[in-house]
Amino acid sequence: MKVGIVGGGISGLTAAYILAQNHHEVTVFEKSQELGGLVASFTQKGWQWPLEHFYHHFFSSDQELFDLAKKLKIENKLFFKKPKTSIYLEGKIYRFDNPQSILSFPKLNLFDKFRTGLTTAFLKVNPFWQPLEKITAQKFLQMTMGKKTFKLIWEPLLQSKFGPFAQQIPTSWFWTRIKKRSFALGYFEGGTNTLISSLKTAIEKNGGQVLNNQEVTCLKPTGKKVEITVDQKKQSFDQILATVSPQTLLKITPSLKGESFKKLQSIGSLCLVLELKESFLKDKTYWLNINESSFPFVAVVEHTNYIDKSHYNNEIILYVGGYYPTSHPFFKMNKEEIYRKFLPYLEKINPNFNFKLSTLNFELFTENYAQPVPGLNHSSDLPSIKTSLPGLYWCSLDHVYPEDRGVNYAIKLGKEVANEILKTTEK
Ligand SMILES: Cc1cc2nc3c(=O)[nH]c(=O)nc-3n(C[C@H](O)[C@H](O)[C@H](O)COP(=O)(O)OP(=O)(O)OC[C@H]3O[C@@H](n4cnc5c(N)ncnc54)[C@H](O)[C@@H]3O)c2cc1C
Fold first, then answer.
1. What distance in angstroms lies between residue 102's CA and the mean position of ligand 1's atoms?
2. Who's near 388: CB < 8 A, 6+ residues apart?
3. Would the pLDDT of 427 be above 70?
């Protein structure tokens, strides 16, 4: 069977790998120059390891990732560490990643901390997310952890992550973040690119093709086949898997016009990656959550407080990132303009840091479809992996709910849709 895959991100490559292993003729079309989609990497002169455009790490609950790494024989390249996580609140940095640091956090009293601990423990052990999608995270957290904890810790995070949609986020989204996240964080030797290049090699070894710079502009059913248009050239496939956003799928597939998934909401993301001469977060914090809704970004991530700087020519890597509706003016700005917008806020975090003297280079990465925005009772709005067009399958960030988007769930989805396509050959 001839299968065309639109998108060389994790889900597309995983599906292609499984289908190629099962002796199907697979072609992956990726519009960008690099493979990987949201985990794509870049490199600079003198770096040994490529670096993700957007900060990435894995969790100890990422079973699908471990299984795939084992199959690709790269499990020995995956390592875990416990880097420091902190929050920035009212002009100060507080460590916030273990029971001692949370107990000594001065902004909450013992009763608030007890309620927070109890709610977190409940969410960790509770396997039932369905009742939780009927209540907003805002209401649930105010009720369980208390209004003060919500205002200080969670409201700014919901605000900066979801902006105008913050008040509609169901507790099920919060549940999966608490349940699946671990303090120990995983990374591949050589970065996530190790996973991407191993997948590519495995697909090609099994006879598949992985093509870069190939933007699919049209998907059209023709008889029993589906036709793909790339560079005005048409090619026919027995089955197609599209791994793109709902908006892109509708744009390139005119015959899907009336589909209900038009209603799905999402936001974009933007990351400024600074290459510095000296450390910015001197207390060795890797991940700094910004709990100030007036700041234009939600996280400052000093990658080299987690992964040794020797892999990056001894440069310090600092990500500054946020989430924004795609209509936000940031998406029209260039990297210098964003740098100038962010700089005064970075200077508030570390007033002694001299960016002029320390900045070697900086890059800007943007993505329109970075985070689905769930609403109450979201499970009833979920799209299916089978579209209404025979032979056209679809998987995206929107398909992994109640999980939050993540590499582990993109792998799971890629496997699921490949198995669905394989079933059609058994009939
Ligand atoms: C800021 C940020 C931080 C994240 N951090 C983490 C993390 O720490 N840990 C974690 O596990 N996950 C993280 N994620 C999530 C993770 O990156 C994604 O869940 C995962 O990579 C999604 O893979 P995918 O294949 O579903 O989609 P994508 O990666 O979006 O792949 C889709 C591919 O389709 C291509 N494409 C689109 N249109 C076309 C077209 N017309 N023709 C051809 N190709 C096309 C795109 O270029 C892309 O390569 C993060 C995401 C973001 C945005």
1. 33
2. 256, 259
3. no
Domain 98-180 falls in which CATH fold? Answer: protoporphyrinogen ix oxidase, domain 3 (1.10.3110)
d(CA 176, CA 182): 11
Assess whether the region 2-56+64-76+189-264+375-426 and the region 98-180 belong to the same CATH fold: no
Contact 210, 362 (CB under 8 A): no
Distance of CA 342 to the CA centre of its chain: 22
> Any idea which fold 2-56+64-76+189-264+375-426 has?
FAD/NAD(P)-binding domain (3.50.50)
Question: What is the reported pTM?
Answer: 0.95
Q: For the chain, what are the domain ranges?
A: 2-56+64-76+189-264+375-426, 98-180
Average pLDDT, the chain: 94
**C-alpha 261 to ligand 1 mean position (Å):** 19
Main-chain dihedrals φ then ψ at residue 312, nearest 5 degrees: -125, 45
Nearest residue to 276 (alpha-carbon basis) of 311, 319, 307: 319
**Closest C-alpha residue for ligand 1 atom 36:** 7
With a CB cutoff of 8 Å and minimum separation 6, the contacts of 244 are: 6, 7, 252, 369, 394, 396
Q: Which two tokens stand for residue 336?
A: 């210098």
pLDDT value at residue 223: 87
Residues with CB under 6 A from ligand 1: 6-12, 29-32, 37-39, 54-58, 215-216, 243-244, 248, 252, 269, 321, 367, 370, 397, 405-408, 410
Average pLDDT over every residue of 282-287: 97
pLDDT-wise least confident of 195-204, 259-268, 284-293, 415-424:
259-268
Asked whether the bond before 402 is cis by omega within 30 degrees of 0, the reply is yes
Kindly report, residue by residue over 34-59, the tens digit of the pLDDT. Answer: 999 999 999 999 999 999 999 999 99
For 79-126, how does the pLDDT look when each residue is reduced to its tens digit (9 = 90+)? Answer: 999 999 999 999 999 998 888 888 889 999 999 999 998 999 999 899
- What does the pLDDT look like over 375-406, one tens digit per residue? 999 998 889 999 999 999 999 999 999 999 99
- Measured from the Cα of 217, ligand 1's closest atom is 41
* Residues 6+ away with beta carbon under 8 Å from 233: none
Residue 260 has pLDDT above 80, yes or no: no
